């Protein structure tokens, strides 16, 4: 039985071309800054995002933690959407390691607005934590792959500049955001101080993320990466996958978005799922199962070859990616459409 795995876009496996690039990678000791393939990936990432420098890190979580550690710091606050990945899925590192206090702000769609942020800035008095950072997530996982309009990012940036507050973007899927919004990644990155993007999600690489920012910031970030145990040696075999991903797997992302809408339409036609198929902005589909426990539907779909994830007691998550072709999605959609939970 063929499996159609939509648990996450992290389940992708390196293609033959990517494996060849990894096999042929020229390597050196990256802790000494001597791995030419890592250096090329970092230079490429800085160029793509329009910043001065970039750093290859082992994961998006590390890429988010380092700027919080450096630019927010102990005893200070950061403002973030209440469903943000940083505070829900990164093991409280924001507090446990960086020593910062996250202040969750409730939104309907995961998108922070300048006016709502300004209301939460602390006055600079000795008995209150200082507000030092805003963390944006683009696209927003738990909000269903929503993305920031460029004008919203500009409004936040103008406010934070006035207030002397740093902006970090958890841009794990920022290339999806760019594809959906029409804004270039450079335009998006220009409205931040620091930005992290993942190589190991929609771009299809097996490992790693890129942390982007000013040259001075990246110099300090390299030190914190080492502090966190993230210094890698002959990492060029991994960096080569990232280079291949950036060169070959970005322009195809709209295919994943259309495939997600196909899955949403199939779900909408069932009697057990509650979803508006027109509400899917990128490659993440959340659906309610009001009359059936999610765990039972997940199991029933698994038995038929479709893998998805639970999202609460009565909800499912599907994520499309490059390992699923249009024909794969059509087959999975047919399985979903014929499912009749007991």
Question: Which labels suit this protein?
Answer:
342 residues; alpha/beta; Aspartate Aminotransferase, domain 2; Aspartate Aminotransferase, domain 1; 2 domains; seven-stranded mixed beta sheet; three-stranded antiparallel beta sheet; 14 helices; 41% helix; globular
Task: Describe the structure in your own words.
The chain has 2 domains: 16-248, Type I PLP-dependent aspartate aminotransferase-like (Major domain) (Aspartate Aminotransferase, domain 2); 252-338, Aspartate Aminotransferase, domain 1 (Alpha-Beta Complex), CATH 3.90.1150. Strand 11 (309-310) and strand 12 (315-319) form a beta hairpin. It has 342 residues and is α/β, with parallel strands linked by helices. The longest helix has 16 residues, at 253-268. The protein contains 14 helices and 12 strands. Helix 12 (253-268) packs parallel to helix 14.
Question: What summary fits the major beta sheet?
Answer: 7 strands, mixed
Oligomer: single chain
What is the fold named in CATH at topology level of the largest domain? Answer: Aspartate Aminotransferase, domain 2
Which stretches of 5+ consecutive residues score pLDDT under 50?
Answer: none
The CATH class of the largest domain turns out to be Alpha Beta
Name the strands of the widest sheet in spatial order.
2-8-7-6-5-3-4
**Terminus-to-terminus distance:** 22 Å
Q: What is the helix content?
A: 40-55%
Strand content: 15-25%
Count of the domains: 2
Radius of gyration: 20 Å
| H/E series | EHHEHEHHEHEHEHHEEHHHEHEEEH
Number of strands: 12
Q: Based on the coordinates given, report the CATH architecture of the largest domain.
A: 3-Layer(aba) Sandwich
Structural class: alpha/beta
């Amino acid at each position: 039985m063929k499996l159609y795995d939509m648990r996450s876009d992290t389940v992708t496996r390196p293609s033959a071309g990517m494996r060849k690039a990894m096999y042929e990678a020229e390597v050196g000791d990256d802790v000494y800054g001597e791995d030419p393939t890592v250096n090329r990936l970092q230079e490429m990432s800085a160029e793509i995002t329009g910043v001065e420098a970039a750093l290859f890190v082992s994961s998006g979580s590390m890429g988010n933690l380092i700027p919080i550690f450096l630019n927010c710091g102990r005893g200070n606050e950061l403002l973030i959407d209440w469903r943000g990945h940083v505070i829900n899925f990164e093991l409280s590192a924001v507090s446990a390691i960086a020593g910062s206090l996250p202040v969750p702000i409730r939104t309907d769609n995961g998108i922070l607005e300048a006016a709502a942020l300004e209301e939460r800035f602390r006055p600079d008095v000795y008995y209150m934590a200082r507000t030092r950072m805003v963390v944006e997530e683009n696209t927003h996982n738990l909000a269903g792959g929503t993305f920031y309009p460029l004008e919203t990012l500009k409004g936040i940036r103008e406010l934070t500049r006035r207030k002397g507050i740093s902006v970090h973007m958890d841009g794990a899927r920022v290339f999806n955001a760019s594809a959906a919004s029409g804004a270039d990644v450079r335009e998006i990155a220009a409205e931040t101080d620091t930005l992290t993007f993942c190589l190991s999600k929609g771009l299809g690489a097996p490992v790693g993320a890129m942390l982007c920012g000013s040259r001075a910031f990246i110099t300090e970030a390299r030190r914190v990466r080492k502090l966190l145990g993230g210094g890698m040696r002959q990492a060029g075999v991994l960096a080569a996958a990232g280079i291949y991903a950036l060169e070959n797997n970005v322009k195809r992302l709209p295919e994943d978005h259309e495939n997600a809408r196909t899955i949403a339409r199939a779900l909408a036609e069932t009697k057990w799922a509650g979803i508006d198929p027109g509400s899917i902005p990128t490659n993440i589909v959340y659906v309610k199962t009001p009359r059936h426990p999610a765990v039972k539907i997940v199991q029933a779909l698994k038995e038929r070859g479709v893998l998805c994830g639970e999202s609460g007691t009565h909800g499912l998550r599907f994520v499309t990616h490059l390992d699923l072709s249009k024909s794969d999605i059509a087959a999975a959609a047919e399985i979903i459409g014929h499912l009749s939970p007991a």
